[in-house]
Design goal:
With 212 residues, the chain is mostly helical. It is 57% helix and 0% strand.
């Protein structure tokens, strides 16, 4: 895909949604960190439902640790892999207290030292909390990038590395959210909504249906 087309894609995204953001509900960097850890293989809707009960009770590393693993599980048991996630969250909170003065670190290496935090989660935090121009490639972005011809890659890391190179700098801050939302609501997995897609004429998907 040529640079002019790529620029047009993100111009349209920006016009359609000038200020995109995560659909996870949070009020602090720490709350977003916990929400993103919980969101692995789970929907944002299910995470928001769980954290609506959890965060009013425990929304700091100290309060989560005081709550304990068993009680934490009660709040998040409706989320997939909740037992493993509870263990990771308690361990991550202890590490935040011991090594980071209870503050969410602002660099990838430190973030990935926390249990339950991989590259994708770290990138979400770096982008959404600290405004860094990074891309967290989840299943939506991986699918959209490959399908529309924006970035071809067999792994999330390969797609991430290509996107960072080709997305124009003015769009990098918001590109992560635009691509996720596009994949979540328009360029969906089984039957993409091509007829109503705002980038239909710019997309390289060879099976797309009638243009708008």
């Amino acid at each position: 895909m040529n640079p002019k087309t790529i620029n047009q894609i993100f111009l349209r995204f920006k016009k359609h949604l000038p200020k995109p953001t995560t659909e996870l509900v949070y009020h602090s960097h720490f709350e977003l960190l916990i929400a993103v850890i919980l969101s692995a293989q789970a929907t944002d809707k299910s995470v928001n439902k769980a954290t609506a009960g959890l965060f009013p009770i425990a929304n700091t590393p100290e309060k989560i640790v005081a709550l304990g693993e068993s009680k934490l599980k009660e709040y998040i048991k409706t989320i997939g892999l909740y037992s493993t996630k509870a263990k990771h969250i308690i361990a991550a909170c202890k590490l935040l207290i011991e090594q980071f003065h209870s503050k969410v670190p602002d660099n990838r290496e430190a973030l990935q030292s926390l249990p339950g935090v991989g590259r994708k989660t770290a990138n979400v935090i770096l982008n959404t909390c600290f405004g860094l121009p990074v891309i967290a490639v989840d299943t939506h972005i991986f699918r959209v990038a490959n399908r529309i011809g924006l970035a071809k890659g067999k792994t999330p890391l390969a797609v991430e590395q290509q996107l960072v190179k080709i997305i124009p700098h003015p769009f990098m801050q918001d590109a992560h959210h635009w691509l996720i939302l596009h994949g979540r609501y328009t360029c969906i997995a089984r039957k993409p909504k091509c007829p109503t897609c705002i980038i239909n004429d710019l997309c390289e998907y060879k099976f797309k249906t009638k243009e708008i």
